Structure of Sodium (Na+) ABC transporter ATP binding protein:
Amino acid sequence: MIVVDQVSKQFKDKKQYVKAVDHISLNIQKGHVVGLIGENGAGKTTLLRMLSTLIEPDEGTIKLEGRNIFENKVQVRSRLGVLFGSETGLYNRLTARENLEYFGSLYSMSALDIKNQIDMLAKRFGMGKYLDRKVEGFSKGMKQKVAIARTLIHDPDIVLFDEPTTGLDITSSNIFREFINQYKNEGKTIVFSTHIMEEIAQLCENIIMMHKGEIVYEGALEELYEQENSRDLNYLFTSKVAGEGLYV
């Protein structure tokens, strides 16, 4: 379980400090798929960056299985797969295969394990035709699929995605959703932000709604539907942001 306890983070913008995340607390259960939604600037990416140990909170703690993640960064990062929006982290002068081999080696994977993972991911995401081409000539969607494969190359226990289907066509987005369900069935923990409510409805058990750095709802999606007597996530999010039917 991941436990976020009274976490805050602020950044300096010119001469002012802006609080990106304001004393939030939440629990992420092992093996659950959790959707993170909110407007741009709501604090979603800041939360994901803290969960990934890339930035530390100004206040509060984040623990994985009872241990502070910032006191055990190396061990935590070995269990994480992380993808932030358009930040693919790929090297343009390398082929897709070479990129994946390189990132696999960073996790001390054997050559055989790397090869097997690349073969599986290339088949899953339909990358076979361009696996040995240099990334610099790739479309946005092609780069995004390689970046997702990079995130999963070491078969992580916990996966953090920030807008993972950005740039993907309908077919690729559906393949990604199928992969999320497969990971869920394998007991993986997945947290992803998205503006696509259909993805939340199809894939998630739990949901975190953020607004101006605060959590306006955190819990089971089905409980939210029952509380509000609606399954329209667009309406439910707007309602929460407007302060109607607040249950947290």
